Amino acid sequence: MTDQQRYNAIVLGLGAMGSATLCQLALRGWRVLGLEQFSEGHSLGSSHGDSRIIRETYFERPLYVPLVRRAHELWRELEERSGAALMTINGGLMIGPPDGVVVTRTLRSAAEHHLPHELLTPAATRERFPAFRLADDLVAVLDPRAGYLDPEGCNKAHIDVAREAGAEARFDEPAHAWMPDGEGVRVTTPTGNHLADRLVVAGGAWTAELLRELQLPLIVERQSVFWLEPDVEAEQYNRAQFPIYAHEYKPGSICYGFPRLPRGVKASVMHDGETYEHPDRVRRTIDESEAGPLRDALRPVLPGLAEAAIRESGVCIFTNTPDRDFIVDFHPDYPQVLVSSACSGHGFKFASALGEVHADLLTTGSSRFDLSAFRIDRW
Ligand SMILES: Cc1cc2nc3c(=O)[nH]c(=O)nc-3n(C[C@H](O)[C@H](O)[C@H](O)COP(=O)(O)OP(=O)(O)OC[C@H]3O[C@@H](n4cnc5c(N)ncnc54)[C@H](O)[C@@H]3O)c2cc1C
């Protein structure tokens, strides 16, 4: 193999994380190859569909706030580079009992990072956002900088910009194996061997299989998603008066949703799906009876939406770590291999910033963000 064919880095997996990383490395002038086992825009991983929430008052942990602020800037930068509209900021409501996890931790994030926010009673919520009819024992925290991203548009924009900057992105080319090759790596696909100085493993739900030797404690979880069509007071679900929301419907459990988009008014219950050891075994079919728990979770906040007809449904997969924080770290045995994955159902919004973090780690060895919660050897 000639030096001409050797890459600075190979990015394995071109979902949200891989496409952002390919883009950031290509923009820095690295010779990069992205490999994806499925076709462009496929729906078998975690990054397809019409919408992903982005929010700043982060109830999971305040440490994500600086990362999401940078992500915000980079999504806007990607819009400028690609000419595509990717992010809509129409506000977000974090709803729950005043002493619940979502409300108390949202307020903690806002206080720690001095983020704009408002605490709303049920009456004030309804006055501003008429579809939301909160039960008396609930409150809402309004995050004015929340909104949603177009995930397929974001991935395409990252790939397009990467290609313009000289990256090679190959779809329908699965990596059958990777191995260290001196100080670099060798990746084997049906077309042959590819050599590079560095490897980024961004395999989403396939990460545990790609790093079998590490026996990572990752769980693949099936998620059902529904697009509803409320026909009573239908205009109340338009984005001008209907922010994104997360509702803690029982302690620690969340349902969430979006305003009306062309496919309907999307809503889902988080982390109540069947779990699997391998993504290839995930049940991909879905029937309307699965919407029952979602309707129950919506009733105390969006009673109209809870009874609406189903227009469409779909399956997507989460890759969960035991603590629901990500993995962003070098392989413990091979410093030429960077692992980024297991976003535990809340990673998309960060992809633009994580692409930059990965590029920083590979080109300079460090990042300006605190990544200690994302270490690969924390279990
Ligand atoms: C229903 C649902 C709703 C969500 N909502 C939100 C939200 O509102 N906000 C938010 O921030 N996040 C949300 N998320 C989470 C977010 O979408 C994911 O964290 C993110 O998309 C994960 O991206 P990824 O690149 O790690 O994985 P993926 O997008 O799955 O990418 C991994 C890629 O690697 C490829 N691959 C694997 N093995 C190989 C191989 N051997 N060779 C070549 N290619 C390979 C796979 O085919 C895949 O394309 C949601 C997720 C789901 C499922």
How would you explain this protein's 3D organization?
- By secondary structure, this protein is α+β, with helices and mostly antiparallel strands.
- The chain has two domains: 3-47 and 152-215 and 325-374, 3-Layer(bba) Sandwich (FAD/NAD(P)-binding domain), CATH 3.50.50.60; 92-144 and 219-320, 2-Layer Sandwich (D-Amino Acid Oxidase, Chain A, domain 2).
- 24% of the residues lie in helices and 30% in strands.
- The chain is built from nine helices and 20 strands.
- Strands 5, 6, 7, 13, 14, 15, 16, 17 and 18 form a nine-stranded mixed sheet that branches.
- The protein is globular, with a radius of gyration of 21 Å.
- The model has no long low-confidence stretch (mean pLDDT 96).
Summarize, please.
With 379 residues, the protein is α+β, with helices and mostly antiparallel strands. The two termini are 39 Å apart.
- What Rg do the Cα atoms give? 21 Å
Provide the CATH topology of the largest domain.
FAD/NAD(P)-binding domain
Order of H and E elements: EHEEHEEHEHEEHEEEEHEEEEEHHEEEH
- Within CATH, the superfamily of the largest domain carries the name FAD/NAD(P)-binding domain
Number of helices: 9
How would you state the average pLDDT, rounded?
96
Strand elements, count = 20
Shape: globular
| Low-pLDDT windows of residues | none
Helix content percent band: 10-25%
Based on the coordinates given, report the CATH architecture of the largest domain: 3-Layer(bba) Sandwich
Cα distance spanning the termini: 39 Å
Overall CATH class of the largest domain: Alpha Beta
Listed once per kind, the bound small molecules are:
flavin-adenine dinucleotide
- Structural class from helices and strands? alpha+beta
Main β-sheet: number of strands, strand sense, barrel status? 9 strands, mixed
* Strand portion: 25-35%
- Supply the number of structural domains: 2
